[in-house]
C-alpha cells in the first residue's frame, strides 16, 4: 500500500496525499462535514493541484466501493470519535481462564466493570450481542467496549 | 424595547423586513460576484444610517441589540473554528510566522493611529484592525479557487489559527486599555483577563471534551438554546468584569470541542449570519457617509503597507514549509483580505474620543481589503514578474514538513 501522508487543514479538515507507482501525486481533501475533493498535482509545479472531482459522503462511499475498497475504516473512525473516552478491545479467553465454560451472567462484567461485551468471535463465527446465558469457551475472543480501566479489569477476569 | 403600540410594532416589522430584504439582495449580488458580502453590508449601512439616503427610525433599538448579539456570535464561531489539536499544532509550528505577521501588520495600523494624533488605545485598536486577516473570506477564497490541495494552504490556515490565538490575548488587553481606568487598575484588569484566558484555554484543551460530551447528549434544539444561552451569559459576565463580552463568547467557542463542536458550528451558522449582517449594518449606521471619502486616503495608505505586510507573513509562513516562490506569493496575497474581525475590533472603541474616525477608517479599510484581497489572491502570478528575486522553473528537490 502506498504511504499516505496526512496533513491537517485547520478549520477545513485533513488532506491525505500519496504518490502512485506511475509517479503521480494524488490528494484527497476530507472536509469536516464529510465532503471530499480528489486532486492531482501538476507534474511541473508540485505546489499546485487540479481538483478532479468533488464528492458528497455518499458518492465517496460509492467510488471507494467501485474501486474495491471498503468503508470499514471510515465507520470505525466515526465510532472512535463518537465515544471519546471509551475504548474497544478484543480479549481472548485463555486456556487457564476461570471463565471457560461459564456463562455471561456469571461474569457480571457490566455490573462490576461497566464494560459491555458487544460480540464474541468463535472461530470463523461472530456472535453479536451475546445474551446472559451465553457460555464462554476457551479460544473465544470477546469484543468489549468500556473505559480503558474497565477493560483492563475484564482482561484480568477473562484472561486468567 | 418597543412600546407596546400596534402601529409601532407594525412599523418596526416593515422596517426590519425591508432591511433584511435589502441585505438578502446584497448577499446575493456578493455571491454572484464571488466576494464576501461584508463590504456590501457596510455600504448598505452607510446608505441607511445617519446622513444616508434613508434614515431608519423605530427599528433602531432592535438593530442595536441585534448587532451586539452579532459580535458575540461572530466570536463564538471564531472560537469554534479550530479544535484543541489544531490550536496546539498551530502554536508548535506557527510562532515565528505569527510574530512576523503581528509586527508587519499590527505595526502599520498602530503607527497610522499615532500619525493621526490619536490616543494610545485608539492606535492599538487600529493596529488590531489592520492585523487580523478575515478567516471567513480566506477560507472561501481558498475553496472557490480550488486551492485546498495547494502546498502553501496549510501554512495559510495555520497562520489564521495563530491570529485566532493572538486574539485571545489581544481582546482582553484592548478591552482593559479602552475602559480607560488609571494605570494600576488597567494592569490588574489585563492580568486578571489574561489569567482567565490562559486557564480557560488550558482547561479547554485538556477537559473541554467533558463539557462538550455533556452538551452533545441533547438534541439540536437543546444544544442550540444551551450554547446560545451560555454565550450570552458568559459574554455578559465577562462584560461585568470589564473583560469584554466578546472575549467571553470567544472562550465559550474555544471550550467546545469534539463532535459537539461541529454540531454547534452547523447550528449556530445561520443565526450568526443573520446577526452578523445586522452588526455590520449597525456599525455602518454610525458612520457619516460624508466623512468616508476623506478616510479613503489613510485607508489606501494602510492597504498598500499592510498588503505588503501580509505578503511578508505569507512569504515567511509558506517558505518554512518548503513551498516555492509562486506558492509563497499566493500565500501572501491570500492573506490580504480583512473583514469581520477588523470591524469587530473597531467596534470596541465605544467611549473613545476617536470612535467616529476609527469606525470610518476601519470601514474604508475593510471595504478596500475585502475587495482587493481576493482579487490579489486570484491574480498572484502577476506579482511574480514584479517582485524581485530568484525565479525558478523547477520546484525544489527536497521539501520539508508540509505544515
Tell me what the structure shows.
Chain A contains five helices and nine strands. Chain A is of the alpha+beta class. In chain A, strands 1-2-3-4-5 form a five-stranded antiparallel sheet. A four-stranded antiparallel sheet of chain A has the order 6-9-7-8. Chain B is 76% helix and 0% strand. Chain B has 17 helices and no strands. In chain B, α5 (95-115) runs antiparallel to α13. Chain B is globular and about 70 Å long. The N and C termini of chain B lie far apart (50 Å). Mean pLDDT of chain B is 85; it is low at 393-403.
What features would you highlight for this structure?
heterodimer, A: 160 residues, alpha+beta, five-stranded antiparallel sheet, 5 helices, elongated, B: 403 residues, 17 helices
Short description:
Chain A is an alpha+beta fold and 160 residues long. Chain A has helices spanning 57-66, 72-82, 104-107, 109-113, 148-159; strands at 5-9, 13-19, 25-31, 36-41, 49-55, 87-92, 116-122, 125-128, 141-146.
Layout of strands and helices, then pairs:
The complex is a heterodimer of chains A (160) and B (403).
Chain A: E1 5-9, E2 13-19, E3 25-31, E4 36-41, E5 49-55, H1 57-66, H2 72-82, E6 87-92, H3 104-107, H4 109-113, E7 116-122, E8 125-128, E9 141-146, H5 148-159
Antiparallel strand pairs in A: 1-2, 2-3, 3-4, 4-5, 6-9, 7-8, 7-9
Chain B: H1 6-33, H2 38-48, H3 60-80, H4 84-93, H5 95-115, H6 120-131, H7 135-144, H8 153-178, H9 183-216, H10 220-240, H11 245-255, H12 259-285, H13 292-320, H14 325-334, H15 340-346, H16 355-378, H17 381-386
- Kindly state the percentage of residues in helix of chain B: over 70%
Total number of beta strands of chain B: 0
Q: Please, how many helices of chain B?
A: 17
Class from helix and strand fractions of chain A: alpha+beta
Q: Multimeric state of these chains? A: heterodimer
The percent range for helix content of chain A is 25-40%
Mean pLDDT of chain A: 80
* Strands of chain A, count: 9
- Strand-residue fraction of chain B? under 5%
Low-confidence parts of chain A, pLDDT < 50 over ≥5 residues?
none
Low-confidence stretches of chain B: 393-403
Amino acid at each position: 500500500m502506498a504511504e499516505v501522508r496526512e496533513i491537517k487543514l485547520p478549520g477545513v479538515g485533513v488532506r491525505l496525499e500519496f504518490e502512485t507507482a506511475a509517479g503521480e501525486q494524488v490528494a484527497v481533501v476530507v472536509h469536516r462535514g464529510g465532503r471530499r475533493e480528489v486532486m492531482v498535482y501538476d507534474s511541473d509545479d508540485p505546489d499546485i493541484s487540479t481538483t478532479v472531482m468533488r464528492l458528497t459522503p455518499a458518492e465517496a462511499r460509492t467510488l471507494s466501493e467501485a474501486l474495491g475498497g471498503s468503508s470499514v475504516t471510515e465507520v470505525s473512525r466515526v465510532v472512535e470519535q463518537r465515544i471519546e473516552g471509551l475504548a474497544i478491545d478484543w480479549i481472548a479467553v485463555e486456556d487457564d481462564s476461570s471463565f471457560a465454560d461459564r456463562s455471561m451472567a456469571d461474569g457480571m462484567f457490566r455490573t462490576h466493570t461497566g464494560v459491555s461485551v458487544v460480540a464474541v468471535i468463535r472461530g470463523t463465527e461472530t456472535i453479536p450481542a451475546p445474551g446472559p446465558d451465553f457460555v464462554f469457551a476457551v479460544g473465544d475472543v470477546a469484543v468489549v467496549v468500556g473505559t480503558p480501566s474497565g477493560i483492563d479489569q475484564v482482561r484480568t477476569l477473562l484472561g486468567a | 424595547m418597543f412600546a407596546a403600540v400596534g402601529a409601532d410594532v407594525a412599523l418596526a416589522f416593515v422596517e426590519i423586513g425591508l432591511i433584511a430584504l435589502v441585505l438578502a439582495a446584497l448577499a446575493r449580488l456578493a455571491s454572484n460576484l464571488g466576494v464576501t458580502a461584508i463590504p456590501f453590508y457596510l455600504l448598505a449601512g452607510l446608505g441607511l444610517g445617519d446622513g444616508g439616503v434613508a434614515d431608519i427610525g423605530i427599528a433602531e433599538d432592535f438593530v442595536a441589540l441585534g448587532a451586539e448579539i452579532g459580535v458575540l456570535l461572530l466570536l463564538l464561531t471564531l472560537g469554534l473554528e479550530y479544535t484543541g489539536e489544531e490550536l496546539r499544532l498551530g502554536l508548535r509550528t506557527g510562532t515565528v510566522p505569527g510574530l512576523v505577521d503581528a509586527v508587519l501588520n499590527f505595526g502599520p495600523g498602530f503607527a497610522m493611529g499615532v500619525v493621526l494624533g490619536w490616543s494610545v488605545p485608539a492606535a492599538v485598536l487600529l493596529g488590531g484592525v489592520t492585523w487580523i486577516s478575515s478567516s471567513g473570506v480566506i477560507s472561501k477564497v481558498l475553496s472557490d479557487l480550488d486551492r485546498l490541495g495547494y502546498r502553501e494552504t496549510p501554512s495559510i490556515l495555520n497562520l489564521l489559527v495563530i491570529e485566532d490565538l493572538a486574539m485571545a490575548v489581544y481582546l482582553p488587553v484592548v478591552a482593559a486599555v479602552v475602559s480607560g481606568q488609571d494605570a494600576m487598575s488597567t494592569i490588574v484588569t489585563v492580568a486578571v483577563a489574561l489569567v482567565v484566558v490562559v486557564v480557560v484555554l488550558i482547561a479547554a484543551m485538556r477537559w473541554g471534551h467533558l463539557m462538550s460530551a455533556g452538551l452533545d447528549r441533547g438534541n439540536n434544539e437543546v444544544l442550540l438554546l444551551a450554547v446560545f444561552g451560555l454565550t450570552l451569559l458568559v459574554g455578559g459576565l465577562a462584560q461585568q468584569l470589564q473583560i469584554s463580552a466578546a472575549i467571553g463568547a470567544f472562550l465559550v467557542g474555544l471550550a467546545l470541542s469534539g463532535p459537539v463542536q461541529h454540531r454547534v458550528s452547523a447550528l449556530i451558522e445561520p443565526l450568526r449570519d443573520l446577526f452578523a449582517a445586522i452588526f455590520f449594518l449597525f456599525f455602518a449606521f454610525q458612520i457619516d457617509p460624508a466623512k468616508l471619502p476623506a478616510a479613503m486616503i489613510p485607508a489606501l495608505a494602510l492597504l498598500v503597507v499592510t498588503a505588503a505586510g501580509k505578503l511578508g507573513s505569507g512569504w515567511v509562513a509558506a517558505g518554512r514549509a518548503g513551498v516555492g516562490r509562486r506558492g509563497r506569493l499566493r500565500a501572501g496575497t491570500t492573506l490580504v483580505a480583512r473583514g469581520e474581525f477588523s470591524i469587530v475590533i473597531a467596534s470596541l472603541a465605544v467611549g473613545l474620543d476617536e470612535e467616529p474616525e476609527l469606525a470610518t477608517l476601519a470601514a474604508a479599510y475593510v471595504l478596500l481589503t475585502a475587495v482587493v484581497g481576493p482579487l490579489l489572491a486570484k491574480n498572484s502570478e502577476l506579482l511574480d514578474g514584479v517582485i524581485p528575486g530568484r525565479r525558478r522553473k523547477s520546484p525544489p528537490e527536497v521539501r520539508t514538513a508540509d505544515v
